[in-house]
Protein 1
Amino acid sequence: MSRFGGRVREYPAVSIDRFDRDNLRARAYFLSHCHKDHMKGLRAPALKRRLEGSLKVKLYCSPVTKELLLTSWKYKFWEHHVVALEVETPTQISLVDETSGEKEDIEVTLLPAGHCPGSVMFLFEGENGTVLYTGDFRLAKGEAARMELLHSGTRVKDIQSVYLDTTFCDPKFYHIPSREECLKGILELVRSWTSLTRYHVVWLNCKAAYGYEYLFINLSEELGIKVHVNKLDMFRNMPEILYHVTTDRRTQIHACRHPRDDDCFRGNRLPCGMTCQNGTPLHIISIKPSTMWFGERIKKTNVIVRTGESTYRACFSFHSSYSEIKDFLSYICPVNVYPNVLPVGGTEDKVMEILKPLCRSYRRNLEPRYKPLGTLKRIHKRDLSDTDEDDLFDSEFTSARPKIPKQQREESKPSSTGKSENAEGNIESTESHKATTTYTSPNVDFMDCEESNDDDDEEEEESEINIVQVLSPAPGATSTSSFSGVTSDQQETNADVPRWDAFFKCNKLEESSENEDAFPSSADAGGSQSLFSDSDGVSDSTHISSQNSSQSTHISEQGSQGWDSQMDTVLITSQERNALDFSCFGKGGSRAVVSVLQETGSQPDSSRWKPVGPTTSCADDVACDLKSKDCGKDGEAGTAGVQDVLVEVSNSSRTPDLELRRDSQSSSDFEIPLTPDAEVPQPDKLRCLYKKLAAGESILREKKVS
DNA sequence: GCGATCAGGT
DNA sequence: CACACCTGATCGC
């Protein structure tokens, strides 16, 4: 829950997402999205009174947020004071003090936040510097790099302060399966159930809040089944959503609610009262969207978990994971950061310990900069993906300000495909904690870096490892051999004194994870054979996993018979889907929605579930290069379309496999001069340093490194 | 009577 | 585990 007070120190004349107390005197108001915890005081009599006596006070928000807000009669009195600003359109606003006449100009830009329909971040630019207020957000890794308006020319804007959604800013939320993965898992579950007979229906047990719409849209589009909801008048001007929801109860997908809907469900009744159709009783399963997360060492992600004979939980998150937050912030690299939310059980200090190292104010203070490697030069040019790498290595590593990816510039970014990047975690492995634990044995011992902020990196490695291990029991385990080899290397790295080239693999993984865009997946991959081999191994392993999952997923009407054995079921697998869905959110504006629809419409296949491929996004990433392989193996290659390619590119960073491959490749591509006066760090320390270097971060002397 | 706050539940 | 929300009890104006 947001505990942001409403004001940013740079521009105290505006209030954002808080409308009580001191905020009553603001010269302008901003609402990032329509969730109650960001609307405190918005309908209070005090504010209402102020509006009545003012012609100038306005509330700025996205067009979709305006629509949602004004649909509620409780907020109708705002009607003539709400100004909808188009997303990604810088707008000048004059902040006038009505009593003194004092005036201050500020430019604000709304950026898609991916949290719920209409959700945006606010970028303020004015005399006191550039400030980014994120509101609540869920952005995949690399997403920030694709936001043109966060850049000036080819570089990230100089941002003074970021007011950040830190809901999951705790290492225990290290990884949350990507939107695409989650969507696919749910899609397949719903598909498998609803296809049994027309009397098999699904109840999506969604909380009363905006944010599930993209799920409804995708299910409806993929399955041709509209979703039953209690109300849809708020979407009356959003045809893209409106088309996929209905108030007609005779549908197989329900997201309707009732004060005691759990009781309804237990009585084999939908919240809307439906219990049978044409005299035939309905067969109902419930799917409860819930946030599922995975620690650094646990990459297995079953996005669907069966919790009972006819109840499931599906992974779903409105907020960015720990690794996504770090990726976002490290890309922005502001001078200061202020958390808007205290993670449960966390403290401000704890959060700041995590975030500060990603800010300039902190980096500058840490003087010692370790430059053991000198300039790295990449021989190969990668066009597709971001050029971050180039930037990182060509420039001094000390400069932590990556440029905007070429991709963005070059590609007209037709539609959101680019956005689909989904790049979120792909690596997941599924696992049940048990499984993970059980199999983790050999490799894992990353004590060294874990402590550091970078742990994420390792994590990725681990994830792969985990996958392998987990999978190994499965039939296809052998296929992973090549893969496992890679793993072992990495581990060795950990254990022994790291060598740059060996390490770099790791880095890449990590980096990729953190900056998806940073690495051009496809271009690289294409070049080296090593990549392919690895990828193959990966894809194999993935494939296996997918098969397993699909099997487990399979639903039978008499599921009761062995559902317990399937408790850890999951569907997931890799998929290439894209990020169509994402776009939905992404652009808070209605336009965005439209674009989404268009995309989907044009590329229906995208949503299809593909059992093959490396784990999700990873697979995608690889896909560019490996695409042929994956496709070939799966035989579903055909489904991979332009989108996939795009996705892959964007995601490239994620796939461990790719990365690994790349790494191997890349290592040969770099020249590594020695630095004379550098101190000789301990192996573990060195490893951390490498990571940072690879991630384009400046080298700091931190305690964590120890 | 209303709103704010807290507890509890989903 | 969380989230965002609802309900109900309590308190204060």
Note: Residues 316 and 643 of chain A are 23 Å apart (CA to CA).
Protein 2
Amino acid sequence: SKKDSHSHGDARANPDPNTCLGVFGLSLYTTERDLREVFSRHGPLAGVNVVYDQRTGRSRGFAFVYFEHIADAKEAMERANGMELDGRRIRVDYSITKRAHTPTPGIYMGRPTHNGGGSSSSSGGGGGGGGRRRDSYYDRGYDRYDRYDEYDYRYSRRRSPSPYYSRYRSRSRSRSYSPRRY
DNA sequence: GTTGAGCGTT
């Protein structure tokens, strides 16, 4: 009787069924295309997102796969969890976050800063003069964007002109370029 | 060819 469907506490352990699957433990060389190939076997996909490191641009080793139907997501989750992909044993589960954190809003999303208002008191900033100051852009403002769950991933579908196919990539990769030396 | 714990930006 302790199970609240609300509690986020064990959300990582018991994510509710969702069309969004988190895929973890990926090889750094596994691409969205590879994931598409694997997961689309279980049903139509609405999107695939490999999470890349902002600095290096390389995969961070996990991704999110969006199905159009929960039933397909469920089947894919059960089937693909623990499977080997590109040499790594991947873990698949329902995502606990629904979508990428909202890209830089561009507008101040904090509470209206009343003087002395109980806002998150991020103090320290040494806020010089005016009472009007934005906390850091990245604070936690995007939390209130969670209602954008219904965001249309379909329009953001992009096609990759990549000539690579996973079965090619595994074997010999950039051997093609031979800077011929004389 | 870097391993790896891990829930998110272009």
Note: Strands of chain A lie at 20-24, 45-52, 59-67, 84-85, 88-89, 91-94.
